[in-house]
Amino acid sequence: MSAMARNELIMWGIGLTELEAQAIRHAARGRARLATWSGDTLPQAEDLDRDEPFLVLATWSAWGRASQAVPVLEGVTRAVILSEDADAETVQNATASGADAAINTPLEQDSLTAVIERAISVRRLYDDIYRMTQEIVLERELLSRKNEQLKFINGFLARTAESMDPVELLGIAQAELSKLVDISALHACIWGPQDDAAFEAELFLAENISASARQSWCSLLLESAASLSSRKLKDYRIVQLPAHGRIVRPPSKGRTLILPLKAAGDVFGCIAVAGSINYSLGRDQVELMHSAVSHLGLALRNAILFSEARNEADYDSLTMIHNRRAFERRLKEEIVRHQRYGHPMSLLMLDIDRFKPINDSYGHLAGDAVLAAVARTIRNAVRTCDYPARYGGEEFAVILPQTSGVQASVLAERLRHEIAGLDFFEEGAHFRITASIGIADIAPDSPHITAPQLIRRSDRALYGAKHQGRNQVVVAPYENECPSIAAMH
Asked: Which residue ranges does the record assign to the GGDEF domain (predicted)?
């Protein structure tokens, strides 16, 4: 432990006689301890580091060697002891060689006390300056760190303001949070309002995740959701996040962080961050992570509210399925996804047969009941990833991602059969309906196709079903195939 660390003041005396040493100790009045060295034995660098003397007194005969052992140092006063008959030239030489003070023998108490007092003042001044410098350096480091943190948060805010799409926001969050910690994957779970006793959740999982890893992540997210919401799970659906190139492994202890998503004090979701190594976060990282996730929660809540408002505008008020505008937008998105990943997809177009006579015979309320019943039948028959819509009038459309023409035909046959089995009663009359269905699909290796082209192909298939007698399912051939149409009964 150094002298400064133990708050002890030490003087060094080099080449002193015993009487001179006693005089110096007496003049110090117990305020400092004197360590003496002979003129032949000089202190070493480790002695200097250990004692950190504030005052060095050396006789003129030992001054040359003492000056080499104790060079000019900040906060250290160097005094030379001269003989009684030392002339002005000697004093000048001593000062020129680095002496801060010169004392003549015999040593007088007043002179010694003045030198010691001045040396203590210099040391205290130096200590104050040193502490102030350290504080300034520390404050600069803290300011620099705060500036970096502010820069990160501002960048995070700017990026999350770029989108109102939850999928895009989660991708942005992964990219930005990767600047703080190692992230191999980011998943999320978002659920419904707190006033529901049970809740429906959306799980956002990476596209390139294996089946076993997907199951593990689903379990972890659902358990976290149940714990954070204190409610029972009613249902959930999976939303795919774009892959980021890294292998997504199952969650493991120490490498997974679960962080709640909050807005207006309510927890409405959580994110799960996975790393390739065990997480050991510093205080700054933890604070920045929580701050970023807090902003992410607000951005996601706004995106959800925007999506809900858009969905209200995108739904048909009678049938409670998507309208044509929403359908056309979604079809373009699914075709882009098909072209990116090469998955098959199909488009199903359904038209109620002889719908006008129903309105003419039973009235428009009966026609509305038929439309609502057909929409409900379609909605109950399709998967959560499928996209049913009212295309216009009595015509409906269903986008079927990752579905081949053969698979779409099976679904269409089931729909045709269920619609034909519906019973309607109006003013004591009983009637039934049928539907014609046309299907167009895109194979994984098919050439580029646009949304209008796919709609035209399914429309032609629907026309073929009508032409063949209605209540039919027809799959459109590919453009380079024979134009004959195959009907399924």
From this structure: 343-478
